[in-house]
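Appendix B, example 12.
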Amino acid sequence: MQYPLYAKGQKACKVAHAVLHIESMFGSLPVDKGKILYMGCVDPHLIYGCKIVLDTSYQLLNYLGDVQLSFFHWLLGLSKTSIKCATYSESGIMPLHYQRLILAIRFLQYCLSCPLSCCVHSAFNEYWQLHMQGHKLWLSDIKNILSIFCLSYSLQVENM
């Protein structure tokens, strides 16, 4: 069985290779233009569905992160063993792990900010009841991922 996250990673890898193939046809690709192509062509595959389905498989998430890192290593002319921090600071791109988490938290913020008459608010209330009954759902995944990435942070959610 092929996981959807892995399939999206394969698509992102193919698109990244196609974007970087431009160099063989037109010469050196400037970093700013490469970043625009990355954000328009590769990044949508890497962040696909992250607002709703969180990453519970770190092996698959690392695979997606490797696609991102490989793209910018090639674009910046860095070796595969170069420091990750330097790659992110030189490219101005956010690490994929954090980018996907931030998008999920923004979606949570959107759900909480919807007016009472909105269907999203009603659906979130139903979801909240399930969460309060102890079911392992999306909000539990956000809490778990926050505890891994941000050791000193905990998500405190009060009754609605």
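Helices lie at 4-20, 22-26, 31-46, 58-76, 84-91, 96-113, 119-132, 138-149. The chain has eight helices and no strands.
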